[in-house]
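As a warm-up, study this chain.
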Amino acid sequence: MSENKKVKKEKSVVQVWIENIIQVVIVVACLVFSIIVIANPGGVKEDYSKINVNSMPVLSNSMSGTFEEGDLIFGEKLEEGEILDIGEVAIFVVNDPKQSEFQFINTHRVVGYYYEYSDEGKNYSGYKDLLKVESVKDEASADAYSQTLGWESFKITGYITSGDNKAIYYKDGVIGGELIKESNTDLIDDYKPSLAGVIGKWNGKKLNGVGGVITWMQQPTNFFFVIIVPLILLFGYNVWIVISYVIETKTAKARKLALEEAKAGGISKEDEEEIKKKAIEEYLKKMEEEKASKENKE
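Now compare it with the structure written out below.
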C-alpha cells in the first residue's frame, strides 16, 4: 500500500469518527431538549400533585429583581402539612375566572396569611402581614401563636402574595408616583391562594435566559423544526449510508466474480476489462429495473 493510500484511509477513518460523534451529539441534544420541554408545565392539570415544579420558565417580569422574565427557576414540592413562612416564594395555581378564563401557575412571594380562629365560642377570620405579626411556619407554631393571644383555636386557610417588582404598578415605572393599579394593602395580589392551591416553593436557584428558550421550544412549530426535522434528516442520512454500502458490496462481488471467470477462461486482459464493464453495467441496469418496478407497484 502506497503512502498516499495510507493517508487516504486514515482520513476516511477520522471522517467516520467525526460523523458518528456529530450524530450522537445531535440525538442526545434532541432527547435532552425534548425531555426538558415536556417536563416543564405548559398548562395546569386538575390533579395539582402531578404538576412538575422542579423547573419552571418565568413568563412575566412581576418578580423582576429576584428573577426575570425568560429565566428558568427551580423549585420543590411542599411536604405534607407544610406551611410557607412569610418571605418565601410560593408556586401556586391561580383559579379565578375573574382574572383569566384558564387556570395558570404563578410564582410570587408570601407576604401574609389568611386565617380562621375561635375566641370565647365565636369564630372569626382575618389576615396578618409581615409588619404586624411574626410569621407562622407550621401547624404547631400556629397553635402556639393562638395560645399567646388566648384564642381557642387558630387555623391558616390561605396566603397573601405579592410580586417583587412594585414598579409595574406605577405609571412610567416610578415607585411612589401615580398608581396604575388600585390596591388597599401594599399592592398585594388580588388572588389569594388557598393552602391546597400552593403546590411548591422556589428554592433560590435559577438559570438566566434558559426559560425563554424552553417557552419558545414549547410552540409546536418551533419544536417540529428544531427537534423533529433534524432527527428525520439524520434517519434519512443513515438509510442512505446503508443503501450505498449494500450497492458497493454487491458491485465489488460482481467485479470479483467476473475477474475470476476471466482468469479461469484464460482470456486476455482486454477481454477481462470488457467482462468487468459488462458485469457492472448489467448489475446497474438490473438495479434500475427493480427500482422502476417497485415505483410502479407503489
